[in-house]
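Module 6 notes. Inverse folding takes a fixed backbone as the condition and produces residue identities as the prediction. Think of it as a translation problem where the source language is geometry and the target language is the twenty amino acids. Below is one complete input and output pair. Work through it position by position during the lab.
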C-alpha cells in the first residue's frame, strides 16, 4: 500500500476486505497542493467517517452485507450521475442527439480503446471476483490510522509536513525492500540436478 492515496482509500479498502491487522494507507492531497500539511482530522477522522457511513446497524463492524450494500449504493450513485450528465435538457430521457453530443465531447475515448485493444474498464480476471472477505472493525482501523499518523508526525506538532511525508515514504520503501529480501533469503535453494550415470 502506498503512503499517499485518496481520502476515501480506507473506506475503499474496507469495501475490498482489507484485514484489520494491516496498516491503513494515509490520505492523499491534491496533486496541485504538494506542500499542504495533513492534519489528524484529515488523516483519521475523515476516513473513519466514511467507514461509519457504511456501518448500517451501528455495531462498529462493517459486515460483508454492509460492504456489498455500500458498493451497490455507490454504483447506483455513479449511474445516476452519468444519466444526469447525458440528459442535457433534464426531461428524464436520453435522446439520440444527447447521446451523440456526449460522444462528440469525448473524442479521446475511442483513441484510448484502440491503442489498448479494448475498453478502458475491462472485466477483472478470475480470482479477483467474488473472493470472500471478512468484516472490518472500525475501531481497529482508527487505531491503526492514529498509530500511523503519530509515527509520521516526527516533530509532534499535530500535522504531517511535506518533509515528514517524504521521510515516511522513504522508510516505507526501505522496509518493503527489506521484507522482500527476507522472503527471498528464506526460500529454499534449488536443488542441483543429479549427474547422469556414466555409460559403459
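Target side of the pair, the amino acids:
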Amino acid at each position: 500500500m502506498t503512503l499517499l492515496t485518496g481520502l476515501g482509500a480506507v473506506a475503499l479498502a474496507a469495501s475490498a476486505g482489507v484485514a484489520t491487522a494491516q496498516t491503513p494507507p494515509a490520505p492523499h492531497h491534491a496533486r496541485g497542493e504538494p506542500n499542504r500539511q495533513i492534519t489528524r482530522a484529515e488523516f483519521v477522522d475523515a476516513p473513519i467517517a466514511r467507514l461509519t457511513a457504511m456501518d448500517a446497524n451501528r455495531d462498529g463492524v462493517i459486515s460483508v452485507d454492509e460492504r456489498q450494500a455500500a458498493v451497490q449504493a455507490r454504483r447506483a450513485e455513479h449511474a445516476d450521475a452519468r444519466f444526469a450528465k447525458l440528459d442535457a435538457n433534464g426531461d428524464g430521457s436520453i435522446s439520440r442527439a444527447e447521446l451523440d453530443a456526449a460522444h462528440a465531447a469525448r473524442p479521446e475515448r475511442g483513441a484510448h480503446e484502440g491503442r489498448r485493444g479494448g475498453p478502458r474498464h475491462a472485466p477483472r480476471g478470475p480470482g479477483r471476483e467474488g473472493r470472500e472477505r471478512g468484516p472490518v472493525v472500525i475501531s481497529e482501523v482508527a487505531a491503526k490510522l492514529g498509530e500511523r499518523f503519530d509515527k509520521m508526525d516526527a516533530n509532534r506538532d499535530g500535522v504531517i509536513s511535506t518533509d515528514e511525508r517524504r521521510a515516511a515514504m522513504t522508510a516505507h520503501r526501505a522496509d518493503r525492500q527489506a521484507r522482500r529480501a527476507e522472503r527471498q533469503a528464506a526460500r529454499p535453494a534449488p536443488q542441483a540436478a543429479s549427474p547422469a550415470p556414466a555409460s559403459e
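Reference fact for the lab report: Strands lie at 4-5, 26-27, 38-39, 61-62, 136-137, 159-160.
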